[in-house]
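Q: What does the assembled structure look like for these inputs?
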Amino acid sequence: MERRKVGILGATGMVGQRFIQLLANHPWFEITWLAASDRSAGKPYGEATNWKLDTPLPAQIAKMIVQPNTVPTAEQLASGEVPRIIFSSVDSPIAKELEPAYANAGCAVISNSSAFRMAPDVPLVVPEVNSDHFGLLETQVSRKQNGGFLVTNPNCCAIGLVLALAPLEQKFGIESLFVTTMQAVSGAGYPGVPSLDILGNVVPFIKNEEEKLEEEVGKLLGAFKADETAGTGSIDLLDAKVSAHCNRVPVIDGHTECVSIKLKTPASYEQMVAAWREFQPLRAHHLPSAPLHPVEYDEAENRPQPRLDIARGNGMATTVGRLRPCSLLDWKFVLLSHNTVRGAAGAAILNAEILAVMGKFKFAGARQEALVNA
Amino acid sequence: MERRKVGILGATGMVGQRFIQLLANHPWFEITWLAASDRSAGKPYGEATNWKLDTPLPAQIAKMIVQPNTVPTAEQLASGEVPRIIFSSVDSPIAKELEPAYANAGCAVISNSSAFRMAPDVPLVVPEVNSDHFGLLETQVSRKQNGGFLVTNPNCCAIGLVLALAPLEQKFGIESLFVTTMQAVSGAGYPGVPSLDILGNVVPFIKNEEEKLEEEVGKLLGAFKADETAGTGSIDLLDAKVSAHCNRVPVIDGHTECVSIKLKTPASYEQMVAAWREFQPLRAHHLPSAPLHPVEYDEAENRPQPRLDIARGNGMATTVGRLRPCSLLDWKFVLLSHNTVRGAAGAAILNAEILAVMGKFKFAGARQEALVNA
Amino acid sequence: MERRKVGILGATGMVGQRFIQLLANHPWFEITWLAASDRSAGKPYGEATNWKLDTPLPAQIAKMIVQPNTVPTAEQLASGEVPRIIFSSVDSPIAKELEPAYANAGCAVISNSSAFRMAPDVPLVVPEVNSDHFGLLETQVSRKQNGGFLVTNPNCCAIGLVLALAPLEQKFGIESLFVTTMQAVSGAGYPGVPSLDILGNVVPFIKNEEEKLEEEVGKLLGAFKADETAGTGSIDLLDAKVSAHCNRVPVIDGHTECVSIKLKTPASYEQMVAAWREFQPLRAHHLPSAPLHPVEYDEAENRPQPRLDIARGNGMATTVGRLRPCSLLDWKFVLLSHNTVRGAAGAAILNAEILAVMGKFKFAGARQEALVNA
Amino acid sequence: MERRKVGILGATGMVGQRFIQLLANHPWFEITWLAASDRSAGKPYGEATNWKLDTPLPAQIAKMIVQPNTVPTAEQLASGEVPRIIFSSVDSPIAKELEPAYANAGCAVISNSSAFRMAPDVPLVVPEVNSDHFGLLETQVSRKQNGGFLVTNPNCCAIGLVLALAPLEQKFGIESLFVTTMQAVSGAGYPGVPSLDILGNVVPFIKNEEEKLEEEVGKLLGAFKADETAGTGSIDLLDAKVSAHCNRVPVIDGHTECVSIKLKTPASYEQMVAAWREFQPLRAHHLPSAPLHPVEYDEAENRPQPRLDIARGNGMATTVGRLRPCSLLDWKFVLLSHNTVRGAAGAAILNAEILAVMGKFKFAGARQEALVNA
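A:
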């Protein structure tokens, strides 16, 4: 079968490495282009990167020459030299400049950056939760011109959280919630958190993280309102209060979150657990990276734990546990999500998979080039 | 100056070791008796214990023979062989049996155990917060008979928390609060938490901890109502909702707590910080273990942290930081407290110091024996 | 294809769990019997064990009832109720009693215990290194009587070390070596090392470990001398001085070892690396658990590292790096080996695989029962 | 009493912070000048630094304005604006340029940098071990011209090691030794080791560390040979083979080292331990930072450990343990030393103290300015 060519912007960073690891044997996508900053451009990827994952760097990727992250020309796109589907994991200031430029040039930019998540015309999507928000794509100018567009996935904490919240919002409605995170160091990239700051320690602060988490939940669980006349639409933010405390802990991968929640309609323990276990919105699509159960509820008294539960659903499932009454709101529970798989590269790849199924990869005179010859 | 003789029940455990460390050069108390379970009794303390602190075991303590933890006879007390002031750090099931028996025999039992904290006639005291609760002592039968009594200090999480809450309760009133703890492994004693459970991990469960924390806060911040006719009294629990999430993290010493709070009377940032900084209720007493500032507010954006702030006030101060608005309640903040100093042995010693100042150490025909000859 | 029935003695411990994980989809063996101490016997395995691995406990294993570890009767073996092939990971004192009894009853006992490793008639084998030592089996009385026998694999440190040493011994001869280990906590089982002892710490002592490592290397690299008249044989220990320093470090899985070595015949850097890379003694056998490259040499200046290299060869390969001259002996290098996969359960399974290929599983009147019906 | 004015070059780094902490209440020295790179110069120290120690930054130091690290003029020295005694902890490339310039300008530069440790005319000194090497000062040109000079202390690993070796060299002679280090992350400064590299991991490589350790031991234990005619001298390096393996482990402070040693004269266990315990070469000098016992031998089977033994002698003592026979050389033992106290700032301060006692602080026309008015 033919696979679509994809590229990675910011290929040498920690999230870039996860893209490479997760796309290594992907049935639908094939990496044909890697770009990074000037420091890395021109070098073989194996030299340019400081590979920090515990699976080996694929040999054919190691040999690929890292390209500069300059915006591609029409020729580069037409020839297939630069692929039409671009996964982006560049830092926010660079994303601000490059991502719209790539979209305007005619690429589908699937970004893990925070730069445009809250922009009114940019879908912020977790496929199991709000794939209807992709309707916002039609409001993007580039989309109409040449098929290019920009979509984003949320902050690593927000993804695990909304996966646990979505079934509750759908069945019972959410009035307010309180969340305290205990976040892994891989979320800060490499070199990221100095060991002197985190060995045997807790740092009760991550810059802008609480703000992102509070506002992204509102957009993710918001409603897409189509404007059928104009063929566009917008998002009504969720009307719920969210209060977040974010902490860094000495864990490599896996964000743990303690949640207290008040529902609009009361729910029993059994109803809550059933809502999570029955949540399988993508089942019909057979997406390669979608876990069979996006939310797994574990009844053990001391789960989830990063060391034991991080790999569930190949790192794409959220594990929930310890559901118990809250003396202030309604219920308390704990959730865990893999922050660099489900919370970053895997989230973007799942967005690309659902976009493929939805037929959104249609580019001006470019369909052929988007496919790799079998 | 003469120092009062004191003994330690449960001397070989982690809290017992802290008692020994903190009492090593205490100006008012001198350890003359160490007791532990049958396994240790009869051995020199240096052999019986597995010393786990980073200061050396004092040589004269190492040589003391560990006594069995049997209830002392009248002769042993009268002769001074067993001291009248007993610090207890035995496990709860043993405390249930031994502590009342020691009190009935005529000892002042100053306990760190959870067994009797919520008993209606037992003071649960943090001296800066509710030393008036010692009024409950007069309701204890032993007290009238022979001067013996039983007092307790709270759970390690509750102590740091109520130190931060007391100034707020006094000035503004507390309506409700959330607290998520990230607790150090030393709180579980030795051997305690297996390394396979906590290295690079978070365990979102500590047995009975959330229940203890929620209920002890209510008693600590409750009001002592004297019944002047009967010469006794009782505690009216604080009428505030408290919801706790407790977690274990890979930190040796120092419990970090994330708090969201709703006040009865609105308060500004400046008023909150002033309430903490001006809180010095014990200043007049010059207690040897009382920190000058029981609550220190740090304005840095990323404090408090266990590794950097645990030693403030010789481990007896609570550090508060990151005061900021809460979108759900009124304010969010973070606090840190040393769990085996302020949260255990130091708490009991401070209780003993304030009891000494209040003149509560009066035993039937025993005053002389309670003092060490200079 | 039919798979041979196997059982596990000591199934609930950490190594027992690894046996279950690694045998879950084994093409040659199927777990049909689990035994543990009286505390666990009679319970479903899922209840009896405290599963500590990051892959889920297989559902069909969770339901199996744990059997008592009593020696099987002839009927239990004849009926196939107790399988003929028994993996053992019980503690040494229990192994001393049970393992010979199981062998005498007619079982092939493949043990990870240290109890009989140095016994003159018991093979201590790493298949890539000294599978000819299985010749010792013929000296075991049970072998002749009913086909039962006892084989062992070495200490977790010794396995990684001899895999790196064997190619050097074969090509150049070893005169002496130093080895300093930095060992993971999983080697001590569960609960094992208390977190208070190892968080942010190094413990320069592991009971009996240095002795085991020094003596086991001598036997593993020793020569099997067949006594053809008697149809038996014995091991001539390697005539090399080995000096070991063993340390515990805060790592979950993966023993790192620093080695300095003096060879009998000088070797260049290229010859050393080639010896490791060309070492593939089992290639012809296509054993399911044998890594293609038992020794991988990594040229990066800072490898191997537990976090990055532990999974090579599915945890069965030894990674070697940093070969450089030693100012005291000839060469210095570093090696890494997965201590609970290659160093324990995987070692025993590989022994079983080579024994199967060698046709050593022949039991008195029992061949049929040893196979699971397809 | 008057205290000598001292300054710190590189005051904002991790070692700079230790200088400030250790000099805070020093009886002989007072910090009057702090310098750092251009990025920090001009700011109050409290703003310029990222204080990472667990004792508070002294308030008067926090207010001091950080000076540029330019070489002082004669006027600045004459006026006392820049003190004559300069502790230096700048990076090696900067040290190469600045330290000789400061010495030539007339300062006593007491450096922790590696830049000049092996220079033939620069003393590399641990006061308990080789204070006679200060005789090399007389070979420095600046010394004769204006009193300025440059002295260094060794690498953090070398200090702990030579303290344990010196008593053995003096009594029995050393023929060869093998040392494997397990080094704390604080040795790499801040931000230093990324947490992704060291959490739950071991890194078997520290750039240039093995080379430094091997060569510095040779110089430290070498003999100063005075050339009495010329009034100068030189060092005869120790004629012993030293082989080092250096590793980074997840420990905050405290380097652990495993040593095997061959002596020239055989020694018994008792003689070895006595050599360490009786080693008190500085006792007569009453230096403020010198530990009473520079080498403490601990007989417990599992000591020394960073978490338990790092603070001995206020971080200035080396703890030795586990003396046992080595099957390859003569003896094996383990040692521990605090790498940022004894291994860096404390080492330089102790050098300054012994230099003061030896009367080496004599500057051209400057004696008065070197003292702070009482």
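Residues 367-374 of chain C have pLDDT under 50 and may be disordered.
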